[in-house]
Design a protein that fits this description.
Elements: H1 4-17, H2 21-39, H3 49-72, H4 76-90, H5 99-117, H6 125-136, H7 142-153
Helix pairs in contact: 1-2, 2-3, 2-4, 3-4, 5-6, 5-7, 6-7
Length: 155
């Protein structure tokens, strides 16, 4: 089975041959971000598929933030381009957790944290977030998880 990075490279080749300028530019940018992440730090390393997904999530978030900034600056054509690039990247990401499933994972995380650390309350945010983020494993943004944890903890 091909790795995520190999899939991106294969899709880049297909996009180049199809003369799909948007997909080509976006996949080149994504592969450059992956390569940058591989060589960051004291020594080069090969990224796992989960690490590549993390890099792509970060790039999608950057595109959304850039689109928002361009809209605020009165540059809708550049915002449209950023949104289009974001859509290409999002197409490679695993599906987000539905609200019900996220709520269930957070409830289980709260129960786990209470069993380990004591009574539930707003002070449990940190321990619950650590447990919840491990359970969610990149299938929901940290902001969504934090909002659900705060809602369930009543803070």
């Amino acid at each position: 089975m091909a790795t995520f990075k190999e899939r991106l490279r294969t899709d880049l080749t297909v996009a180049i041959k199809a003369r799909d300028e948007l997909r080509t530019a976006t996949l080149r940018m994504a592969l450059a971000a992956v390569t940058t992440e591989e060589v960051a730090g004291p020594e080069a390393r090969s990224l796992s598929d989960d690490d590549v997904v993390t890099v792509l999530r970060r790039e999608a978030k950057r595109r959304a933030e850039a689109a928002e900034a361009f809209n605020a600056g009165g540059r809708p054509e550049l915002a449209d381009r950023e949104n289009a690039e974001r859509e290409v990247i999002v197409g490679y990401l695993p599906a987000e957790l539905p609200e019900g499933e996220l709520a269930g994972l957070v409830r289980a995380s709260i129960d786990e944290a209470v069993a380990a650390d004591g009574p539930s309350g707003p002070g449990m945010l940190g321990p619950v977030m650590r447990i919840a983020q491990a359970k969610v494993a990149g299938r929901a943004s940290g902001g969504r998880v934090a909002a659900e944890v705060r809602r369930q903890l009543g803070s």
